[in-house]
Design goal:
479 residues, alpha/beta, eight-stranded mixed beta sheet, three-stranded antiparallel beta sheet, 13 helices, 20 strands, binds 2-acetamido-2-deoxy-1-O-phosphono-alpha-D-glucopyranose, UDP-sugar_pyrophosphorylase, UDPGP_fam
C-alpha cells in the first residue's frame, strides 16, 4: 500500500509534532519514501500520549519507593551456599529431567545498543580476548549444546533446548548474519528463533519527538520489558507451545558466566511450584549497579539501582551486612502459562521508566548535533516488572564468582569491563581444573597459587575450558 505525506500532516500536527515534517521539502524522493514508511509504523494516536507522558514523567520527581520497601526475609530465598548437597543434586536432577523432555527453553535479551561498552555492533558479538577468541554468543551457544548433551546422556534422550533471541532494529540483522557466518555455532538453525522488540521515539524534555536526521526519527528499543509485547507480536508463545516448552530461562546477553538453562535453577523453581523466579547474588558494595530483589508494599519485585536512594542502598544490618543485598543478575525463570497470563492480562500495565540519554539530533537548521549532556527521554519497560503479577515468586541466591561477571563498560573503566569478564572466566576454569585434581605450574615447573575469586585479579594461568567439554566444572567420566 502506498503511503502519502498528507496522511501524516494532520495527525502529527494534532499530536503537537508538526516539526517532524519540517525538512520535508529538502528530502529527495527516496528519503521521503523511507521516512513515510517509518511514520506509517508509528502509532500516531498513541504518539501524543507517549510524548506528553514522557515529558511529564521526566519533569516530576521519581516515585520514591524507599518508604515502602523491605528486604525479602532470608528464609524466602533459596541459596546454593546454604543448601545441602542432597537438595542441590535433587534440583539438578529435576532440571535435567525437564530439559531431557524438551520442556525447557532459553530466551536471550539482546536488543540493547551497547552504548556503555562503546561498540556499534551487538554485545553478543563481543570478543573479550579469551585464548580461544570466542564471542559471548559462541560461549552461550556451546553451553546450550553441552546442557542438551548432559541431559541426553543421563536420560538417553535426544533433546532440544530452543534458543529464543530477542533483538531490536539495531541488532537483528547483524546477529542473523553473524550466526549464519558461524554456522549457528553447531546448533540446529530451526531451534534458534530470532525476533524483534518494538522501538519507540525518543522525546525532548518538552515532549517533542527527536529527529535524528532530516528524514529519520530517533527511535530506541522499548526496554527489556518490551519482551512481553514482542512475544505477542512474534507469536513466540505459540512456538513454545508447539515445541512443548513449559519453562523458560530468560537472561541478559552480557554475563560471561551465564549458565544457560541452568538445571539447578530450573529444578529449584519447578520443585517450588514457582511461576516466576530470579537469580540473585550478594551485592558487592552499596552502589553496585544491580537491581535488588525486595518487597514493595509487601509484594516481591526488583527495584532497579537507578530508582533507589543511596541512603537506602547503604543501610546495614546488625552484623554489618547490607540490608538490601539480593542483587538481581538478570536471570529469570518463567512458566509458559505465566507468560501467557502476562501477554493476555498484564503487559499493558507495565510501568514505563524514564531514562535520560544523550540523543544525537538535527537542529532547526538541519545540522547534526551530538549532545554532550542528556537532551532526550527514552521510556523503557523492565523485564522484571512482571514479578508483581506472580502467584509464587522465588529468588535463588547463587555464587557470584561462578555465575556473574557482566560486560557493561569499556576497558579503562573500573568494573564490569572486558578484562574483568575475561579474568572471571579464566579464574573459574583454573578453579575447575584444580578441583579436578590438576596442579597448575609456571614455566619453571613450580606450582602456581590458587586462583583468586575476585574479577579484579588476573587468573594465575590462561586456562580456558570449552563449554563443549564442561558445563559447570564437571569432569567427563571415561568408561
Ligand atoms: C532493567 C534490567 O533488567 N536491569 C538489570 C540489568 O541492568 P542494566 O544496567 O540495564 O544492564 O542487568 C543487571 C545485572 O547485570 C541487573 O542488576 C539490573 O537489574
Amino acid at each position: 500500500m502506498e503511503v502519502h505525506k498528507d496522511a501524516f500532516d494532520l495527525p502529527s500536527t494534532s499530536a503537537g509534532q508538526a516539526h517532524v515534517l519540517q525538512f520535508w521539502p529538502e528530502l529527495c524522493e527516496e528519503e521521503r519514501d523511507v521516512f513515510l514508511e517509518e511514520l506509517a509504523q508509528l502509532d500516531l494516536k498513541g504518539l501524543k500520549d507517549h510524548c506528553e507522558g514522557a515529558a511529564k514523567a521526566a519533569a516530576s520527581p521519581p516515585d520514591s519507593l524507599d518508604q515502602h520497601i523491605e528486604p525479602i526475609p532470608p528464609e524466602f530465598i533459596g541459596s546454593v551456599k546454604k543448601s545441602g548437597r542432597d537438595s542441590l543434586e535433587e534440583w539438578e536432577r529435576r532440571g535435567l529431567l525437564e530439559i531431557s523432555e524438551n520442556c525447557v527453553g532459553v530466551l536471550l535479551l539482546a536488543g540493547g545498543q551497547g552504548t556503555r561498552l562503546g561498540v556499534q555492533y551487538p554485545k553478543g558479538m563481543y570478543n573479550v580476548g579469551l585464548p580461544s577468541g570466542k564471542t559471548l554468543y559462541q560461549i552461550q551457544a556451546e553451553r546450550i549444546r553441552k546442557i542438551q548433551e548432559l541431559a541426553d546422556s543421563k536420560h538417553g534422550s535426544k533433546c532440544t533446548v530452543p534458543w529464543y533471541i530477542m533483538t531490536s532494529e539495531f541488532t537483528l540483522a547483524p546477529t542473523e548474519t553473524f550466526f549464519k557466518e558461524n554456522n549457528y555455532f553447531g546448533l540446529e538453525p530451526t531451534n534458534i528463533v530470532m525476533f524483534e522488540q518494538r522501538m519507540i521515539p525518543a522525546v525532548t524534555f518538552d515532549g517533542k519527538v527527536i529527529l535524528k536526521d532530516k528524514g529519520k526519527i530517533a527511535m530506541a528499543p522499548d526496554g527489556n520489558g518490551g519482551l512481553y509485547q514482542a512475544l505477542v507480536d512474534n507469536k513466540v508463545l505459540e512456538d513454545m507451545k508447539k515445541r512443548g516448552v513449559k519453562y523458560l530461562h530468560v537472561y541478559c546477553v552480557d554475563n560471561i558466566l551465564v549458565k544457560m538453562a541452568d538445571p539447578v535453577f530450573i529444578g529449584f523453581c519447578v520443585s517450588k511450584g514457582a511461576d516466576c523466579g530470579a537469580k540473585v547474588v550478594e551485592k558487592a558494595y552499596p552502589t553496585e549497579p544491580v537491581g535488588v530483589v525486595c518487597r514493595v508494599r509487601g509484594v516481591s519485585q526488583v527495584v532497579e539501582y537507578s530508582e533507589v536512594q543511596p541512603q537506602t542502598a547503604e543501610l546495614r544490618g546488625p552484623g554489618g551486612e547490607l540490608v538490601y543485598s539480593a542483587g538481581n543478575i538478570c536471570n529469570h525463570f518463567f512458566t509458559r502459562s505465566f507468560l501467557q497470563d502476562v501477554a493476555e492480562k498484564y503487559k499493558d500495565q507495565l510501568k514505563q521508566h524514564v531514562a535520560l540519554k544523550k540523543v544525537p539530533f538535527v537542529d532547526a537548521h538541519g545540522v547534526q548535533v551530538k549532545p554532550s549532556k542528556s537532551n532526550g527521554i527514552k521510556m523503557e519497560k523492565f523485564v522484571f516488572d512482571v514479578f508483581k503479577f506472580s502467584r509464587n515468586f522465588v529468588a535463588f541466591e547463587v555464587v557470584r564468582e561462578d555465575e556473574f561477571s557482566p560486560l557493561k563498560n569499556a576497558d579503562g573503566s573500573a568494573t564490569d569491563n572486558p578484562t574483568t569478564a575475561r579474568n572471571s572466566l579464566l579464574a573459574q576454569h583454573c578453579r575447575w581444573v584444580t578441583s579436578a585434581g590438576a596442579t597448575l605450574l609456571d614455566k619453571y615447573g613450580n606450582p602456581l597459587p590458587l586462583p583468586s575469586v575476585s574479577a579484579d585479579d588476573s587468573p594465575p594461568a590462561q586456562c580456558e575450558i570449552s563449554p563443549l567439554v564442561s558445563y559447570f566444572g564437571e569432569v567427563r567420566t571415561v568408561c
